[in-house]
Write a structure and sequence with these properties.
The complex is a heterotrimer of chains A (about 350), B (about 325) and C (about 290). Chain A is an alpha/beta fold and about 350 residues long. Helix content of chain A is about 30%, strand content about 20%. The longest helix of chain A has 18 residues. The two termini of chain A are about 25 Å apart. The chains are: A alpha/beta (about 350), B alpha/beta (about 325), C mainly alpha (about 290). Chains in contact: A-B, A-C, B-C.
Chain lengths: ~350, ~325, ~290
């Protein structure tokens, strides 16, 4: 395996003194697409913001490393970080309306992004900006350079954001819920665009989303977050065919897509996600888990390898042989009864 | 179908003045019939006019034309006092669970507010009713003293539902009521809404941009596009054989939790409709969907004649398309 | 892997207790000033008009903490009694501005369109008139009594309250709880008084504190030019004016009331800032 472009090691983030990201580690290979999936409050967005060094008081990183190539982004000074952000790692946000400057033309904003890291002559920068706008699928890019953000639709604004994020050919792109604010019909277009551009340029991407369907169509690997921790990480096909962690499994079953049985009640997850500061001892999913036993409360559960995936569970779900060949059959897996294959931490 | 309609909207129009003196026809001649005891789903993207329609039905907005009749009575021609009395039978649950609860009140104040406003019962009777309502939405009685900020999204939405049920309504408008909730909580609330409907015989108007959720909960579904209903019909027919190209597009755009299929769908969709920024066409000239339409973009009839909502296929679906059914 | 996520109930309780802070210095200072003025007879052994012709312009210190004036009256005593009037005018006008402004602003917010235009343009026009000029005309018309001074100041400050009330009411009524209230059949008046008013109260209170500072300055200015409180009644403005005549003989005489006005206004503005920042502070959620 080639060296990872981004290596997050045991990242910890706290709001004040309340830990909200509790030891997140993952690696991103060049060109890889990783999905970070979780519900609100799971810490997925804070993970991304912390990688970019964009946390503001009272949110701060309380431990860990974020290695981009050979440098730890968390140890950089502000000036050094400014040189890295945008040039080697950049980010697109959920709300394209508020992440663009309403008083500057779109062209000026792209040129600014180019100029921050590449000192090029004015005409040349404009030409590059027009090319970029064309690449992200904005019709008539030359004329549209002089338009203001409010003259664009939501989907088009997000395309402009993508153009700005890719202006300096970064190695890593973080996408924080890039399509949540968009309509469904626009959503697929934007995801498709990110998909195409990242393949062409070999940009490694982290897609942060609450929508498993979006992650399914885009990501090579998926990490599921719950209460500030990764609970399961595996390849997309493995996860959807055979989710091991009860939470990932329940999350998939509870998703209301076009295939659900309309005649019966939905398999909902009982209870509420824990609030930061009130996370239960042991396994944080334990109070909502149908498979929980007393041992789950005893001690922190480790993220351990299991059949090519990483799972944070001492009683992971087993799947019947062959069920893996039918994608989307995770619903058929055994959830309730105890399993023959139980794991003990640190065994 | 219409003989049992609890709520019947006919040719409703709501126009907003927009900048530059132009007017925006947010709802442009919409008619729907909601059968008693059923759930009517209304799907549409942002700007389709679905929320304006719901606000007209709730009389939070005054429609410019058309009628809204509830249980045989026309609300548009009704006096303000009679509308107020009728309000107890029509309730609403909004999208933002925290914005729809007054942050300075406690849960019991909030749930009891409709009772207090209608001066129903004394203090003790009201607090008994509040306890009963919280039990109905499966919230522990200990929640009564809490403020909205101490509730999670799902709990807050349960409180909003309890408030909506306080006056024993027949009809509840659910305006994106589960859209702001997380996946795991959304399923709980949908289950609760179905249980309540069965228990109390409620009729729902369920408004959402999420086709999966609408499909799960509604028996009849209407799809809105720029102020018009472009397709309406029973769930099974609408999902099995969508007649309008826009319905087809929406169905294709819903992400599915199956990596290989989702990947191909996403690719296809990306190629199919290149631009989502085409200028809006004037309302009077032909079909309003044609700038994005894979079927009628270049056809003359689509450019000159505004399609009417008409039956096209077996099974009771109506579609506003000259070439309905061609897409499937 | 660090598992520092669990927090005991005790820790959570401790954290909650910390948020109950002691009031800021500005509020404490204001409180001291107000209490000393109200309980002036307990603070000083002198009366405000006790003349001591033997010791005019006595230096600060000893028996007279701030010295005496041209008739040997104790300056501190006169300041405290003067403060009673200054603070009364200030409080009275703030209350008037609060009531008129709130009704004005809420009406404008509730009746969008024509009524709103009229109400808010009236507010703009009122705010465009120079305050002193307006006060001059009113005093000339109604005479310089304590009551007219209070009412005039109150009327002058009402438009700023009205603007604040309008903007926060519009903000509140656009929230869904208001729509839900209309939908369950609560009347607008009921919703505005029971549901909306408690929520806009902090903003209105902040505006009232800012108004108090303006009222203090306005009272002092009017009294200084002889259009406000009339001697032998005294306020800080009156004392400032009297001291001004002896600026070279006895600087403390003029400086003491000036400093008091300054400190009070400054503390009021600080307190208003404080109120504003607590109102805007949001709960951080991941």
């Amino acid at each position: 395996m080639t060296a990872p472009v981004l290596d997050v090691r045991d990242l910890q983030v706290a709001i004040g003194t309340t830990p909200v990201v509790r030891g997140v580690s993952f690696q991103l290979a060049p060109g890889e697409r990783l999905g970070l999936v979780g519900e609100s409050g799971s810490g997925k967005s804070l993970t991304a913001l912390s990688i970019m060094g964009l946390n503001r008081d009272p949110i701060r990183v309380s431990g860990g490393q974020v290695m981009l190539g050979g440098t730890d982004l968390l140890r950089l000074s502000r000036a050094e970080l400014d040189r890295v952000r945008g040039a080697r790692i950049s980010m697109i946000y959920q709300d394209p309306a508020s992440s663009l400057n309403p008083l500057m033309t779109v062209g000026a904003q792209i040129v600014e992004a180019i100029n921050l890291h590449d000192k090029v002559e004015r005409g040349q920068a404009r030409a590059r900006a027009a090319d970029l706008l064309g690449d992200v699928g904005v019709p008539n890019p030359r004329q549209r350079l002089d338009a203001y953000p409010h003259e664009f639709s939501g989907g088009m604004r997000q395309r402009v954001m993508i153009a700005i994020a890719l202006a300096c050919q970064p190695e890593v792109l973080l996408c924080d819920e890039p399509t949540t604010a968009l309509d469904v019909t626009t959503q697929s277009l934007v995801i498709n665009l990110i998909d195409r551009l990242c393949s062409e340029r070999g940009v490694a991407t982290v897609l942060i989303t609450h929508d498993l369907g979006v992650a399914a169509g885009f990501c090579d690997n998926i990490a599921v977050m719950y209460a500030g921790q990764l609970v399961e990480q595996s390849s997309t096909s493995t996860l959807f065919a055979s989710a091991r962690h009860p939470y990932s499994h329940a999350l998939m079953s509870a998703t209301v897509d076009l295939g659900v049985d309309v005649t019966s009640a939905l398999p909902a997850i009982a209870g509420q996600p824990p609030l930061p500061g009130a996370i239960p001892q042991g396994c944080s999913f334990r109070p909502r888990c149908p498979r929980a036993v007393e041992a789950c409360a005893d001690q922190p559960i480790e993220l351990l390898p299991l059949d090519g995936a990483l799972v944070r569970c001492i009683r992971p779900i087993t799947h019947h042989p062959g069920s893996g060949t039918h994608p989307g059959t995770a619903r058929d897996a055994t959830v309730g009864p105890p399993t023959e294959q139980e794991r003990v931490p640190n065994a | 179908m219409p003989e049992a309609a609890l709520l019947s909207v006919k040719d409703l129009v709501k126009v907003f003045p927009s900048r530059e003196g132009k007017e925006l026809r947010a709802v442009d001649g919409v008619s729907i019939d909601v059968r008693r005891g059923s759930t009517f789903g209304l799907v549409g993207e942002s700007g389709s006019g679905k929320s304006t329609l719901s606000r007209c039905i709730l009389r939070l907005l005054r429609p410019d034309a058309g009628t809204v009749s509830f249980d045989g009575q026309d609300m548009a021609s009704m006096s303000a006092a009679r509308v107020r009395r009728l309000r107890s039978r029509i309730q609403v649950v909004f999208q933002d669970p925290h914005g729809s609860l007054n942050r300075s009140k406690t849960v019991s104040d909030i749930v009891g507010a409709p009772l207090a406003a209608h001066r129903s019962g004394n203090r003790a009777a009201r607090s008994a009713r509040v306890a009963e309502l919280l039990d109905l939405v499966q919230l522990p009685a200990a929640m009564t003293a809490r403020k909205p900020r101490e509730l999670s999204g799902g709990q807050a939405q349960r409180v909003a539902i309890a408030r909506a049920l306080a006056l024993n309504p027949d009809f509840v408008v659910l305006d994106e009521a589960v859209s702001a909730l997380d996946v795991s909580v959304r399923a709980q609330i949908l289950n609760l809404l179905r249980e309540l409907q069965g228990e109390l015989g409620l009729t729902y108007l369920f408004i959402s941009h999420d086709l999966g959720v609408v499909r799960y909960i509604s028996q009849d579904i209407a799809v809105m596009y720029r102020g018009r209903i472009i397709e309406v019909g029973p769930r099974e027919q609408l999902f099995a054989a969508p007649q309008h190209p826009y319905t087809r597009l929406l169905l294709d755009a819903v992400p599915i939790a199956d990596p290989s299929r989702q990947r191909t769908r996403m690719r296809l969709l990306g190629e199919q409709t290149g631009a989502d920024d085409r200028p809006d066409l004037p309302d009077d000239a032909g079909c309003r969907f044609r700038s994005r339409c894979p079927v009628g973009a270049d056809r003359e009839r689509c450019a000159t004649e505004d399609p009417r909502l008409e039956p096209h296929a077996e099974g009771g679906t109506l579609a506003a398309c000259h070439y309905a059914g061609e897409i499937s | 892997m660090a598992e520092s996520g669990t927090i005991s109930v005790a820790t959570a309780a401790r954290r909650r207790r910390v948020t109950l802070r002691i009031p800021p210095i500005s509020v404490l200072l204001l409180l001291i000033i107000v209490l000393m003025c109200v309980f002036a007879p307990l603070v000083t052994p002198f009366g405000p008009n006790d003349v001591d012709p033997a010791h005019p312009f006595a230096a600060a210190g000893g028996q007279h903490w701030l010295g005496t004036d041209e008739l040997g009256r104790d300056l501190l005593t006169r300041l405290l009694y003067g403060g009673r009037l200054s603070l009364t005018v200030c409080a009275g006008s703030v209350v008037i501005a609060f009531f008129i402004g709130t009704i004005w602003g809420v009406c404008a917010a509730e009746r969008r369109g024509f009524v709103e235009e009229i109400l808010m343009r009236t507010a703009d026009v009122t705010m465009a008139i120079p305050q002193i000029l307006f006060a001059l005309v009113c005093v000339a018309a109604f005479g310089a009594s304590l009551l007219s001074l209070t009412v005039i100041t109150g009327l002058l400050l009402a438009p700023t309250s009205a603007r604040m009330a309008r903007s926060v009411t519009i903000q509140e009524t656009s929230l869904d709880y208001y729509s839900a209230g209309i939908a369950y059949g609560a009347g607008k008046i009921r919703l505005l008084t029971r549901e909306v008013f408690p929520n806009i109260l902090p903003a209105l209170a902040g505006q009232a504190v800012i108004n108090a500072a303006s009222a203090m300055i306005l009272e002092a200015s009017l009294s200084f030019v002889g259009l406000g409180v009339q001697p032998p009644q005294m306020s800080w403005g009156v004392l400032l004016q009297q001291g001004y005549g002896f600026l070279y003989n006895d600087p403390t005489y003029a400086v003491a009331p000036a400093v008091l006005i300054l400190v009070t206004v400054f503390c009021l503005n600080l307190a208003a800032n404080r109120l504003g920042s607590t109102r805007h502070r949001k709960v951080v959620r991941p």
